[in-house]
Amino acid sequence: MPEHNSTIKALFLDIGGVFLTNGWDTEARKEAAIKFGLDFEELNGRHRIIFDAYESGKSTLDEYLTLLIFYKPRNFTREDIKAFMMQKSQPYPEMIELIRTIKRKHHLLTIAVNNEGRELNDYRIQQFDLKSFIDVFASSCFVHMRKPDMDMYQLAIDLAQVKPEEIVYLDDRPVFIEAACQLGIQGIEHVDVATTKSALAQYGLI
Q: Is the whole model's pTM more than 0.70, yes or no?
């Protein structure tokens, strides 16, 4: 049985910006543009048009890269870009250990609710052993919708089989929390480990 008097039964967890770096974000694309001699504005403009399909699992990484970069000959390969993209993922060990400890102590169900393309998501899950503290991955690439689509949060609730008010959702982006709150989910905006600990303590989880 849980070792606390809290009514919380499940944690919904974003990944990028909470447990890992954001990976293929704007800064990473800027670095890629410099490293590979690309026009960042053109690269970023194309990304904004096509990334929804990739993160929703409706196109592959190769298809995304074809439209993003390899629509004309380049002096580097797809594998060069893929390796660069993967290298941008780095862990936040203190946050990983915090949630791993809370989950184990209080027997909480944990569900990832994150926007990520399949190949990057698979890499990050395996590379950083995210399965050691996340039970279910309701990732955008698997469920074919992206936050803040309300159906994505509802699907995660259905998978959890708990009431919305029995869920705490950690995300570093307030707008995603605000969307989830419309369904009755309680949210914590992750800024740093200390403030997240303090917020979790208010739910009796620390």
A: yes
